[in-house]
Amino acid sequence: MKKVLTAVISDECPLTPKCKRIFELKAVGKTEKEIAEIIHRGQCTINTQVGQILTKMDCKNISQAVAKAYADGWLRFKYVDTKY
Q: Which of 7-11, 45-49, 79-83 has the lowest mean pLDDT?
């Protein structure tokens, strides 16, 4: 078994469900290209949505957004077991 770090966004977070999923993946270090492959969207679409996340959270970069979400209680991390 391998443990994988995951992020969980609370319901109080003001992002849309789609943006929450993207933010969860960015919070654990996935690139826009990796996210596009995971959720079957174009990389340009992911780039646009990351920009929307940053605007909505009033942040300059994803690191700042993660720190803000964690401090506000919107984001938590956990390890999950996986076979891969």
A: 79-83
Residues 56-73 have pLDDT tens digits of 999 999 999 999 999 999
Question: What's the alpha-carbon Rg for the chain, to the nearest Å?
Answer: 13
Domains of the chain plus CATH, in order, are 2-79 (1.10.10.10)
On the CB side of 43, CA atoms within 13 Å amount to 5
pTM: 0.90
- How many Cβ atoms from other residues are within 10 Å of residue 59's Cβ? 16
Residue/partner pairs of 45-52 with CB below 8 Å, 24 or more apart: 46/22, 49/18, 49/19, 49/22, 50/22, 50/26, 52/19
DSSP state of 84: -
Pairing of strands 2-9, 75-82: antiparallel
